[in-house]
Write a structure and sequence with these properties.
The chain is mainly beta. Helices cover 4% and strands 46% of the residues. The strands form 2 sheets. A 6-stranded antiparallel beta sheet has the order 1-10-2-3-8-9. A 4-stranded antiparallel beta sheet has the order 6-5-4-7, with no helix packed on it. Strand 2 and strand 3 form a beta hairpin. The radius of gyration is 14 Å and the shape is globular. The relative contact order is 0.29.
Length: 111
């Protein structure tokens, strides 16, 4: 899908695609990930399915790993769309909202 990345990111929404700064071994990287859970939400991953506040999150496919947590007030939970091969919150933990630098916006189609 075509889209534009909007910088000076402020508020996350479920399903947003974001660019987030991640530090690994003293080096900073820009990761492109999808927001799965917001601050205060209860996230569960079990039997290859994602649940937010007890409701099944219908998405592209199965999700590896097990998780049961409440997202901290200053953080979000993100996953890559290629779930089986993504380095994301399942391995790195929740991400600070302050580390999000942009979100993808899909422009409206011209009539």
């Amino acid at each position: 899908q075509e889209g534009v990345y909007i910088y000076r990111y402020h508020n996350a929404e479920d399903g947003d695609v974001v660019i987030i700064k991640v530090t690994l071994k003293d080096k900073e990287y820009d990761f492109i990930k999808r927001v799965i859970a917001l601050p205060g939400e209860h996230l569960e991953i079990k039997n290859h399915k994602v649940y937010i506040n007890g409701k099944y999150l219908e998405d592209e496919g199965s999700t590896m790993g097990e998780e049961d947590c409440v997202i901290p007030d200053d953080s979000i939970y993100v996953m890559g769309d290629n779930r089986d091969h993504s380095l994301d919150s399942r391995k790195l933990g929740t991400m600070k909202i302050s580390k999000v630098v942009a979100r993808k916006v899909i422009p409206e189609k011209k009539l």
